[in-house]
Specification:
The chain has one domain. It is mostly helical. The protein is elongated. The chain is built from six helices and no strands.
C-alpha cells in the first residue's frame, strides 16, 4: 500500500505494526502454551539442557527479538520467546521496537519501494 500512492502512509505504518506485532504475539502464545511438548520423553530427558538454554535466552538471546521482523526466521524467534517463558511486556517492547524501525525505514525513508516491489 505504501508503494502505490493514494494511501495515508501514517495509517499504513500503524496498521503494519499492529498486524505484524499481533502475528508475533500469536507465535509467542503458541510457544508458551503448547506445553504438551514438555511432557514428551524427549523433553523429560533434557530438562537440564532446557534450563541452561532458557538462562542463555534470558541473558543474551532475548535481544534477537529486535529482528522478529525478518522473513522466515522472525516467527521462530517469537515462538522461542514463548517457549522460554519470556515476559510478555518485554517481548512486546522488543518486537514493537524492531518492527517500528523496520516499517519506518520502508515507508518514511526515501527508499524507492516501487523499483523494489513493483517488478
Amino acid at each position: 500500500m505504501a508503494v502505490f500512492s493514494g494511501y495515508n502512509n501514517y495509517l499504513v505504518f500503524t496498521l503494519a505494526i499492529i498486524g505484524s506485532t499481533s502475528g508475533s504475539l500469536v507465535n509467542w502464545w503458541i510457544g508458551k502454551y503448547f506445553l504438551f511438548l514438555h511432557k514428551t520423553e524427549f523433553f523429560k530427558k533434557r530438562q537440564k539442557e532446557i534450563a541452561k538454554a532458557q538462562e542463555k535466552w534470558r541473558k543474551y538471546l532475548v535481544w534477537i527479538l529486535l529482528f522478529s521482523w525478518m522473513d522466515v526466521i522472525g516467527n521462530p524467534f517469537a515462538a522461542m520467546a514463548g517457549f522460554f517463558k519470556t515476559d510478555v511486556k518485554k517481548f512486546l517492547l522488543l518486537v514493537l521496537l524492531g518492527k517500528f524501525f523496520y516499517y519506518y525505514l520502508l515507508i518514511f525513508c526515501d527508499i524507492d519501494l516501487k523499483t523494489i516491489y513493483a517488478n
